[in-house]
Design goal:
With 573 residues, this protein is an alpha/beta fold. It folds into 3 domains: 82 residues, 2-Layer Sandwich (Gyrase A, domain 2); 214 residues, HUPs (Rossmann fold, 3-Layer(aba) Sandwich), CATH 3.40.50.620; 183 residues, Isoleucyl-tRNA Synthetase, Domain 1. Helices cover 56% and strands 9% of the residues. The protein has 22 helices and 12 strands. A 4-stranded parallel sheet has the order 5-4-9-10, sandwiched between helices. The protein has a 3-stranded antiparallel sheet with strand order 1-3-2. Strand 4, helix 6 and strand 5 form a beta-alpha-beta unit. Helix 15 crosses helix 16 and helix 19 packs across helix 22. The longest helix is centred in the middle third of the chain and has 25 residues. The two termini are 32 Å apart. Bound molecules: arginine. It catalyses: tRNA(Arg) + L-arginine + ATP = L-arginyl-tRNA(Arg) + AMP + diphosphate. Monomer.
Length: 573
């Protein structure tokens, strides 16, 4: 990839001895309005340094660099040097990159460093509701983005499979459970037991003692409790795995909280030794008042450990096992304070690498009809949402392709229906709360997944119509006459394609897949403008080959962008 910003910084720094290349690099901008050039250099800062008017500095620089082969035109406008790149050179280099198949968009800024991305992390025996989809989908995309940046990524699912609630579940099962029901419908059934437990415990408080004992026995490793708990876990995982399969999502490790059950004592001892542990109403806490936070709970009065205790052990285990460069947690913003608390405790223990543990928060999703809350018992299973999306898409696809066979419709309905949900998830800045609306998700003309996928299929259709010979010539850029790609709509598209790799870098730095979502919507819109404005399959062979080359580049850009979100790019739809 030619880095024009760097090239330009070098040229400008070469003209002005007072300016370093790095400073120039910081100043060079890409103007919003293409009429102001591909790149612009503001001279305000130099004006102070050189005690000259910024206009005259801009004029001097513009004149000095105007005849470089890199530029078609250089203009001084007020305090700015506006630079227009030589279009054919720019288009050629961009298309060369774009023809590099699946590598287009990738860079190696990560240089093989190891990054952990923890995502999904649902709770056993609780439904995987539409709120959980965010962690799963955002986390998966962050994983894909970091891979594309040349990092090694370890994908972890920190399943919530431990804690006092399992005592309650065990007791509930013993009183009212039925093996077959659990097997048939694990999560709904187990959740039902859990709800029933709370209702009954209101009337019979002794149930709470029973549950505490059951959890204590589980922690001690009593055979019967462990067996039941393992079974609940297995059955629940079967359901989660079905959803992961639909989403095409995998993990390298699915060690839940229970994995750390024997790794916590060490920190409790360490905290004690360092004088950080205090007793408060029988519980052990770390006081965080000094840092403006409520205390971190380490053990309960009955000695049992907590969510927080397990997160401390987990972070240290990950550092010792993987020596990560970054350890990323994709977890809802409701847990912001909680993450600050436990990270503070890790810091107080003296582990300065905690600065490399990053909580990537996201806002809440609600449904149009207001359903969301698990606690209210009105749960929406992600699986239902996905199935509904596939069904609705199937209808649309069947209508658009009346002659198509069942298998084709089925395949596309999956790719587009599930993709639509993923895309919607990743469209908004992740910290914003948003309302999930079916009409918006499945709109083929809006800024949606189906729209972008449809544009990909449109590119594929243009290539089919162009025929193999033209396509082969277009792939081999040697024979392409780039002067046919100088129009505004072609050039606007080229500029967006050029920016793709940098967009991926930015999305990685900000942990923000929506930057990619936005960018591929822009590419799709630019392609559609090009498609409407110009006659791509021209009778003039040279023109046709050039325009088909740009179509291949756009197709590669869209496909690779979709892949970073965890989506498929259908050839027909
Ligand atoms: N299971 C938790 C929940 O559903 C999320 C776990 C987040 N990860 C962590 N390391 N605490 O709320």
């Amino acid at each position: 990839m030619v880095n024009y910003k760097e090239e330009i910084s070098k040229i400008i720094a070469g003209q002005v001895s007072e300016l370093s290349e790095e400073d120039a690099l910081e100043l060079v901008e890409i103007p919003q309005d293409p009429a102001m050039g591909d790149y612009a250099f503001p001279c305000f800062r130099l004006a102070k340094l050189l005690r000259k008017s910024p206009q005259s500095i801009a004029a001097d620089i513009a004149q000095a660099i105007a005849d470089r082969p890199l530029f078609e035109k250089v203009e001084q406008v007020n305090a700015y040097v506006n630079m227009f790149l030589s279009k054919e050179m720019y288009t050629r280099s961009t298309l060369e990159d774009a023809m590099d198949g699946e590598n287009f968009g990738k860079t190696n800024v990560g240089d093989g460093k190891l990054v952990i991305v923890e995502y999904s992390s649902p709770n056993i025996a609780k439904p995987f509701h539409i709120g959980h989809i965010r962690s799963t989908v955002i986390g998966n995309s962050i994983n894909l983005i970091y891979r594309a940046l040349g990092y090694k990524v370890r994908r972890l699912n920190h399943v919530g499979d431990y804690g006092t609630q399992f005592g309650k579940m065990i007791v509930a099962y013993r009183h009212w459970g039925n093996e077959q029901d659990v097997k048939d419908n694990p999560i709904t059934t187990l959740l039902g037991y859990y709800t029933k437990f709370h209702v009954e415990a209101e009337k019979h408080p002794e149930l709470d003692d029973e549950a505490r004992k059951a959890f204590a026995d589980l922690e001690k490793g009593q055979e019967e409790e462990v067996k039941l708990w393992k079974w609940f876990r297995e059955e629940s995982m079967k359901e989660f795995n079905r959803v992961y399969k639909m989403l095409d999502i995998e993990f390298d490790e699915v060690d839940g909280e229970s994995f750390y059950s024997d790794k916590m004592q060490r920190f409790i001892d360490e905290l004690k030794e360092k004088g950080l542990l205090e007793e408060s109403r029988g519980a052990q806490i770390v006081d965080l008042e000094e840092y403006g936070m409520p205390p971190a709970l380490i053990t309960k009065s009955d000695g049992s450990t907590l969510y927080c205790t397990r997160d401390i052990a987990t972070a240290v285990y990950r550092k010792e096992t993987y020596d990560f460069y970054k350890n990323i947690y994709v977890v809802a913003s409701q847990q912001n304070l909680y993450f600050q608390q436990w990270m503070k405790v890790v810091e107080l223990l003296g582990y300065d690498w905690v600065k490399d543990c990053i909580h990537v928060p996201f806002g809440m999703v609600s449904l149009e009809d207001g359903t969301m809350s698990t606690r209210a018992g009105r749960v929406v299973f992600l699986e239902d949402v996905l199935n509904k999306a596939v069904e609705k898409t199937r209808e649309i696809i069947a209508e658009k392709n009346p002659a198509a066979d069942e298998a084709f419709i089925d395949d596309v309905a999956h790719q587009v229906g599930i993709g639509a949900v993923i895309f919607q998830e990743l469209s908004n800045n992740k910290i914003k709360d948003y309302v999930f609306k079916w009409d918006k998700v499945l709109n083929f003309d809006g800024e949606t997944g189906p729209y972008v996928q449809y544009t990909h299929a449109r590119c594929a259709s243009v290539l089919r119509k162009a025929g193999e010979e033209t396509v082969a010539k277009a792939w081999n850029l040697d024979d392409v006459d780039f002067s046919y790609l100088n129009s505004d709509s072609a050039y606007a598209l080229t500029r967006l394609l050029y920016a793709l790799p940098q967009t991926v870098v930015e999305a990685g730095e900000k942990f923000e897949p929506s930057i990619i979502t936005r960018h591929i919507v822009n590419i799709a819109q630019a392609y559609n403008r090009f498609y409407h404005d110009e006659h791509i399959l021209s009778e003039n062979e040279e023109e046709r080959v050039a325009k088909v080359a740009l179509t291949i580049a756009a197709k590669n850009g869209i496909r690779n962008g979709l892949a970073l979100l965890g989506m498929k790019a259908p050839e027909r739809m």
